[in-house]
Amino acid sequence: MPFDGLLLSRVVKKLQEYKGAKIGKIQSLSDEEILLFLHKPQKGSARLALCAHSNTCRLYLDEKNKDVLPNPSPFVMLLRKRISQGYLTAIEQMGYDRIVRFHIVASNEFSDRVEYDLYAEMMGKYANLILVDSRDQTIIDCLKRIPVYENSKRLLHPGALYTLPQKPERQMPEPPVTIDPDRSLVSQIEGFSPAISREFLYRMQNGQTYEEIYDEMTHSDLLYRTGNEFHVLPFEHLQTPWTSLPLMEGLETQFEADENRRRISLQCGDVFKAVDREIRKLSKKLPRLEESLEESYGYDEMRQIGDALFAHLDLPKSSHVTLESFDTGDKLEIDLDPRYSIKDNANIYYHRYRKLKRGREILAEQVEQCANQLEYFQMLAEQLKYCSADDVLEIRQELADRHVLHLKKDAMRRKKK
Length: 417
Hints:
By secondary structure, the chain is α+β, with helices and mostly antiparallel strands. It is 40% helix and 21% strand. It is built from ten helices and 14 strands.
């Protein structure tokens, strides 16, 4: 479900504890997720994660040590230059819209006081992070630049004037409100998503008042999860069991598996491609080798034909003869090359016999080796579905040692050492 305005209001209330915190390091968790290190003497240190991915956009306090990208994005480099060592003086939600404004006071290279607004727009496929100059609200840069030919109503580009997205006129969710129970609350009250609207209407039909439900929601510090649905209220209308976690922990772990796969794919996509490539190659190679091995089992028939031909060297040149095998007594239908004598044809069959006999041993080894390699890469493909980033890096090095993958040297890492 989407990260709606009502849920965001609870997150913003929690984040108010870090108002006045100093911003330290700024890092890239992925191409669409950044990490701000906050420090406040009364609260200690915290890591604020801002995720602008279209399917998993949200704000949360990161409690786990996640792998960061070795090469930060240009937007993160800009944030480091502008707001690192600045102070977070205000955290404000724009009404009940899915937009949060972080007001930051920092110093420039001349030690002059500069004020910025970092807007976190958690609006699904339009999710974005935008750094704005507080004086005139001009955009300094965005995580995702939206030129005018992509969105004629709202330009998100360096130098453009930042404006909030347009929204329909709706009531604020604080009681008292006027509700039409036959319509979705999404179109009536700001901040509602379809899922939480269904929950409110279900509870109101079962005896609870809007005020009671709203009061329960505004005092909830837990995140309730039912399948892919999550909110600060349990979804009773789904009539299925739910689990609950503290709000920030729940938001951090809600999409953990998907994000780990995305981060791993981003950092080690070459490993997945290499394993898939080897599986495709070996899957085509193995049947061909098995077919060749099956053909090579007829090598002894070539010897029997050669023996029979040498016993009848007085036969005239022809394209086909029928002779009896000395080993089995069976009739042998023998194709000959009429250009050569019987003796030369016999030598040709002996040559085939020796070649197939040698090849059978080699082919048997190749079939076994190819089957083992295919099983190995299929096992790696299964491991890659569930392993951590550290495990993928180990697999990457293992593939490099096998010369399956060529690792490029990281200039930045080399310089750091």
